[in-house]
Amino acid sequence: MHPQLTSASSSTSSPSDRRLSALVRHLTGSSPEIDSQSILSASPTSGFHGDSVFSHIVRAPEDPILGVTVAYNKDPSPVKLNLGVGAYRTEEGKPLVLNVVRKAEQMLVNDRSRVKEYLPIVGLAEFNKLSAKLILGAESPAIRENRVTTVQCLSGTGSLRVGAEFLAKHYHQRTIYIPHPTWGNHPKVFTLAGLSVKTYRYYNPVTRGLNFQGLLEDLGSAPSGAIVLLHACAHNPTGVDPTFQQWEQIRQLMRSKCLLPFFDSAYQGFASGSLDADAQSVRMFVADGGECLVAQSYAKNMGLYGERVGALSIVCRAADVASKVESQLKLVIRPMYSNPPIHGASIVAIILKDRNMYNEWTIELKEMADRIISMRQQLFDALRARGTPGDWSHIIKQIGMFTFTGLNKEQVAFMTKEYHIYMTSDGRISMAGLSLKTVPQLADAIHAAVTRVV
Ligand code: KET
Predict the structure, then answer these.
(1) Which domain holds residue 380?
(2) How far is the CA of 157 from the centre of ligand 1 (A)?
(3) Is 299 in the pocket of ligand 1 (CB under 6 A)?
């Protein structure tokens, strides 16, 4: 028997040690008898039959975004409406699988030559190449010059995390500036990856627009080399994007201070309906020959939410640097999840490489974007028709999946309680979850909240 276990039965051992040793003797057959009484009465600290060794753990709060869906699912009301998570719904309020995605899946199923082997650590090569082209543009000199390394990751979140871990390990600056406000998961992803998170001003609650002056001041006083997280388009949660001219100013400032851009592109095609227009900010930064990181997600624009398909691209100044960077990305990925899943990336690759399927996708994507934009107008008109106090023009000025309403926490809680409308407590509503049928319900709820809850 193990010396430590036999010594536990000596006269100097504690009662719990003796009980443990009795159990071990019983389980190993080294003792015909067992003092069952002493085991059943084992003290909580013994770890056996008492409280769980995890009994000290406190309950964590639900996620501020995904927790909204948890609460929504518990509500038995037939009129409940989930405008929390950014997930597209049809006019009938149902999740949408794009036709072109169904077609690609059918092709995958029909192809008997397909196997389920592991992908390489960096994922599906074809998917990576096509993803880089999608975000940087087919004619991008950076791609042509082999200065870009792209690795398939677990959707947008996984791409951000891998990029952040890589930076924490290999980049000289550990500080990342994120906009205030931003997607709630950003600070957690970056902090856990080992970066130190600071914010830059982004939104002006008074104008409900961009705080451009504040943004320039904050990035202007950031230390040289700091990393800056930029939403490529359709800023979440505010729906406020810089204009083209403002992007150009941001670019000049960042390049002059050697700030490293890390783009989060979760909504390419969802903002304007055009994949190219929504990639303009990224392409501006790549066109100047400088370096940057881009995290891409296919969750929204291809409706592949649960398939977890995304890519991280790192644009470098030279091909040999990009290739060395990729070798290190593999060392980040291998111990994290070894290699990415094959199905979703195969769907994307099929769609991106075939001209007809690609065109079909852009049409379906535009339909989704247009439906969201029309919901903005509908909601704005409905509030105007009700004479709801306040200027609601930001609903039609903002862009992307969300409207940042300006409703406060209490007003949101009121709308959930009285109208069964679920949204994040910061007053963000997912316009993609709204339909012609539910606009009046939302407008009634907003009207009541604004007039009855201060
Ligand atoms: N970046 C941004 C800006 C973003 O809004 C999301 C998702 C992601 C990345 C990550 O998406 P992924 O599914 O990992 O590709 N946002 C919506 C869903 C979520 O919170 O997970 C949301 O804000 O509702």
Answers:
(1) 66-97+369-452
(2) 7
(3) yes
